[in-house]
Amino acid sequence: MTQNTDYLREKYREMDDRGETWPLNQLETATQARPTVEGREVIMLASNNYLDLANDPRLQEAAIDAIERFGVGAGSDWSIAGYTILQDELHETIASFKGTEAGLSYQTGFAVNAGLLPQLLEAGDVYVSDELNHGSIIDGIRLSPADSLVYDHSDMADLEDTLRTAREEYERIIVVTDGVFSMDGDVAKLDEIQTLAEEYDAMTYVDDCHGEGVLGEGHGITAEFGLEDDVDFQMGSFSKACGGFGGMLAGDQHVIDFAYNTSRTWLLSAGYPPAIAAANKRALEIVDDEPSRVRELWEKRDYFASELESIGFDTGNSETPIVPAMVGESTAAQKLAERLFEEGVFALAIVYPMVARGKARIRNQINVGLTDEDLNEALRVYEDVGRELDLV
User: Domain Aminotransferase class I/classII large, which positions (predicted)?
Assistant: First the structure.
């Protein structure tokens, strides 16, 4: 008898017993401050839609116009027959938005890291990576023939020690870091990272997926630190604060030329629909034109984080609109998320392998569409449920 897949059933059961599975929740409306999820109107604290653009009528209008001009699907890979003028317009807008010579869109943010990182270095080179970098960075580096070294999270002394060692052994070095770390909501010390990289003749690669629309008056972490001309590879996402879909890369023209000619995720995946390209371009323009939207987001974030802490929850290392409520055990975090949902607050538990075992939390993500009433109601529920479960 040949082997079968029954072992996967047992693996899943063990994961579920540990509280390490992910329930799928069906939205029945657009993603917004108060969507309907599984038949219940809830306050949305689980979305990356920081600037409340996912359902913005201006993005809808741009998408509909693109459908009328170019149809629904791209028809092919961008490298073959799926490339339109909309892509050129989007790429020019990316470059302008990120303050670089050129820009490029990818099918997803994951596809940027998984497709580009394997191509940038060769055997005899090394990636130096923060220990809490996103899984897409980890996967991209694993696919590379280059070696990798990991430094303690945001520990600049350890980064310098690692770079000193790497400089003695390797030809080329790229320091890779998230801009905003997606599980804890803290910000990379990019100014110090860039200084150390230059001292040890290393390049820098920043994943800014949670920084666009949030830091640097919306332009991301390189704008926050004034490093637009210094960071070698700036990647990011349209799928979060921009309210659209896909990933982006910004840098010098030769970097972009190399990227789309070597990234298999770009070359061998269908281009995303023309409507997406048009909506993404419009989103960048709105972020650029409306800095007040970003400032309002921060006001709401600061209020929510302060009040959540006053209730008794630990918000960890949060410095951004990602505001975790630290719990510890996965089963306890899952129970908290379940009770929050029952009381009208949609905020998911983040458990292993997204975070280390024993560091499960609820990840709250604030968006500018939440009213003061929404935030206060969510905080009331947090206090009631937290006391009920002996978490505060």
Answer: 41-380
